[in-house]
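Section 5: illustrative case.
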């Protein structure tokens, strides 16, 4: 199956587009939009010291983190998944010199018995993520049933099975897509992913201006398979957001000088 975007022109009314905060779910205690039963107080340098506190949603102490930076490394995004009973943190190990990144999984493992008391939380496993270079995170979204976590960076995206603690798939963007992502949207039924790109293509020898390729790609969110690639009729950089309609049958694009509404049409290959 493929999905084509039928351009039906400038919309009479644009939907409310997701903000950056809406695209990244978090369990950092400082966020007003923090979700999950437990919270992690974030630190500015991404390095957690030994006995770093773990909090309940009401701010009371649930326990303390063991190992911290030596076990987990530097961290960026964090979410607590109630169904999995664990934190999922994008991270790079301390002194790590390889490529990609990791998702560290932290859960309660017991109690402190020496030099401290109370519940102990520590990293129990980690998932290697090839597209996590530098963790330039664009999206970190937990599915409504909490069984899947979508992770998007400027280098690619993937889907994490939060209950099985594994990577379902990993997609690295090609050379043109790499670091050209503008925005993304998840369909209401959580089956499709739309990503908008604006990539520098070539330098015009006459005007000396850079020309851009602007396009939207549609992916099967469950498998990572690309279902569509729609080119936009502009060779200028488009800083545009995408958003599915409430019924999931349309896709809106909103830029400063470019607004469009597309109808999604499924066809057999």
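Designed sequence:
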């Amino acid at each position: 199956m493929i999905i084509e975007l039928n351009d039906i022109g400038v919309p009479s009314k644009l939907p409310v587009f997701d903000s950056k905060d809406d695209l990244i779910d978090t369990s950092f205690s400082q966020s007003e939009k923090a979700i999950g039963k437990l919270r992690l107080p974030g630190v500015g340098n991404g390095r957690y010291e030994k006995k770093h506190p773990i909090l309940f949603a009401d701010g009371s102490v649930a326990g303390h983190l063991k190992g911290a930076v030596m076990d987990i490394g530097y961290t960026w995004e964090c979410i607590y998944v109630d169904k999995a009973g664990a934190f999922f943190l994008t991270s790079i190990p301390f002194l790590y010199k390889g490529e990609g990144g990791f998702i560290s999984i932290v859960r309660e493992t017991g109690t402190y018995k020496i030099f401290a008391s109370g519940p102990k939380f520590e990293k129990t496993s980690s998932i290697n993520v090839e597209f996590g270079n530098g963790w330039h995170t664009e999206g970190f979204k937990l599915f409504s049933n909490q069984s899947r976590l979508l992770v998007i960076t400027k280098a690619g995206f993937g889907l994490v099975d939060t209950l099985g603690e594994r990577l379902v798939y990993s997609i690295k963007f090609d050379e043109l897509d790499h670091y050209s992502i503008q925005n993304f949207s998840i369909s209401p039924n959580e089956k499709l992913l739309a990503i908008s790109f604006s990539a520098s293509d070539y330098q015009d020898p006459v005007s000396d201006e850079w020309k851009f390729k602007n396009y939207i790609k549609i992916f099967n969110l469950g498998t990572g398979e690309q279902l569509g690639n729609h080119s936009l009729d502009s060779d200028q950089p488009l800083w545009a957001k995408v958003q599915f309609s409430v019924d999931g049958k349309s896709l809106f694009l909103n830029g400063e000088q470019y607004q469009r509404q597309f109808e999604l049409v499924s066809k057999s290959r």
